[in-house]
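haha ok so turns out i had the wrong file open the whole time. this is the CORRECT one, sorry everyone. sequence first:
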Amino acid sequence: MYDIRGIFNKDFSLKDVYNIANYININKKIKTIAIGYDSRYTSVLLLSALYLGLNKDKKIISLGMITTPILCFAIDKLKADCAIMITASHNPIIYNGFKIFYQNKTVFGNALKKFLKPLNYKITRPSNITKVDITNDYISHIFKIQNNLNKKIIWNGGGTITSVIIQKLLEKINNKNYFAINNELNKYAAIDPTIEKYQVQSRESVKLHNADFAFIFDGDCDRLIIMDKNGDILSAEEILFLLKDIYKKCVVETKISRNTINYIEKNYNKEFFIVKTGHPYLKIGINKYSADFAIDISGHMIFADNKYDDALYAAVKIINYLDNNKLNFKNYISKELRINCSNKDKIMNKIFFFIKKNSYNYKIFDGIEINIFDGWLLIRQSNTEGLISIRYENTDLLLYNKMQNWINHNIISIIT
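then structure:
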């Protein structure tokens, strides 16, 4: 549980919003709260409910409609004790939720559940609200690291608040080779850049403008997907290789290819640290291991000089390395197979029983890792959605195909 997220009035209600406010009210260490919200049609309603639940003695900094990285930028700059972003990130438009930060750290897991603990709440009308527009300062922060290069790049924020921030940044950069699409703000827009249907327009624009790359962002701008001139998506493994000159130590999530990190470690003298899936674990890992860079396969990237996952910061930083040589060793790795599953806990138990019963070589770490046919396979359940994901790899094509057949026959059959 990385954040509070679901379908409003089904998975959570206004009562839950008041519980969040009241948990903040009883925490005497929280004196200043920074609050932002995304462009979803339910966000303003949730914002109003949050305001009504907070006590008058709390100082509220209202940041308006922003992205999650802008909120993270504001926490440092405004010295907020607590910060709340109203967003459902990449989820469909009927979803919404809350990302909560306390003492400059992401609140997740059991700590987050405390914010939902039922309390005797009292609706008030706080008078201590200060509106602060920090977007221009954030844009200047991003602008400092940009180099005005001649690559043609499509920038796609999907008609969300991310699109608005992209336009502000591109106006400041003033590069005729940068083209923003989906610019009109739409409160019914949501975008998951990892899903094919949200990549189609960028692919068409790359072809239309004869662009070198397209940057596709999610709705709250903490994830970035990169598309090349052929319309192909760069994998996290390819990005790791492209950026190998900027890191010595790197944190990766558990779904990253083991063959890739072993190859880069051996040939380029790098050190990798594997953490659980989820952006909070990337943040913890980059600090714990004093790493230079962190990445997962869904587009979260953190640079040590920026502290948090910011897709715009990553995009501008990465531009300088897009011409580097591509990953060039023989490895066959699947895309992430994402299978909808309403009873994922029960299904994962069945899969584990099957693996153990048949004495396969496995280990448990944020899912079930299995060594089979001289390859690597990961099966894990999502923490944010009702699905089970599968990823596998092998350096031998014949064995890779055997793995695929084995998965279809033994694992997919259990899930479906």
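The chain has three domains: 4-133, 137-321, 332-415.
again sry for the mixup
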